[in-house]
Amino acid sequence: MRQLLFVLSCLVPASLLWCQSPTASTYPTVVLNKSIYATQQDNDQDGLDDALEYELAGAFSPYLIWDDQESCSLHQTFYQVHPLEQNKIAVIYVLTFPLDCGFRSTGFVGHWGDTQDARLTLSSEDGLAWKPDDPSFGPLEKLSFHDGGHFYLYLSGGKHHTYPDAASCYQRYSGMDGCEGGPEYIEPILADHNVGEEWAPAITWLGNFGQGPYKEGYAGENAWDQSAWNDWRFCGGNSKKRFSPQCDATGLGRIWLRSASDGNSPVN
Ligand SMILES: [Ca+2]
Ligand SMILES: [Ca+2]
Fold first, then answer.
1. What is the 8-class DSSP label of residue 128?
2. Ligand 2 centroid vs 85 CA: distance in angstroms?
3. What global pTM score does this model have?
4. Ligand 1 mean position to 46 CA, how many Å?
5. Do the Cβ atoms of 204 and 223 come closer than 8 Å?
6. How far, in Å, is the centroid of ligand 1 from the Cα of 64?
7. Residue 116 contacts residue 238 (beta carbons within 8 Å)
8. Ligand 2: distance of its center to the CA of 202 in Å?
9. b vs e for 77-87, b when ≥16 Cβ sit within 10 Å of the residue's Cβ?
10. Residue 243, Cα to own-chain centre: how many angstroms?
11. Average pLDDT over residues 29-51
């Protein structure tokens, strides 16, 4: 109800309605043109319409701000739109990189493969209008939004550590991280990068997701597998290094919400 205190301005794209207050820090509301629970196609069997999952993920995608010394920005973003309790949804974005180039791209503590996640919890009263909840913990507890509704995500040079603003970028890791203001843009969200759900995954093996000099894709990486011995890491397709210290990123299968481990289950 807080946004009712503001004078709202609204734009009307083809398929959804944006409403936001005049201040960039106020949480935006995205209004879909139908309830996300009115499913026409639901291949991942979570009770959410697949096209509207994609639409919602794109509407709230992060506004990336890179460090000016970034030399390892090549990445792909995968995402999950997952039902929580009725009228609550989690949207998880995971940026995946073939390489972590170390602090400020010096190579210091760099490694093969890198994953960086950011997640929003959205609430609604009718399935149509969706607004982020206040994050209460984690590196993005001070969430703020770029004009248009995309949350700010600063990425430290080389390491890609995520921060809500430039100031907090220098408060961790003894000042070794840097967010000096390089390229910035709204991260594009692709329909075929929705991983689906554990009980009906839309993506499993990532060998077909090639890009740039890494045309072979993330060979040997799986979006959902978890290791039985707690050592399944994401290596950016460098699977031969999976069990070496050179590969030190959280596996994708440990990031998504699951029916078994998070206590949630499909809405219907
Ligand atoms: Ca769905
Ligand atoms: Ca889903």
1. S
2. 14
3. 0.86
4. 5
5. yes
6. 26
7. no
8. 9
9. bbbbbbbbeeb
10. 26
11. 97
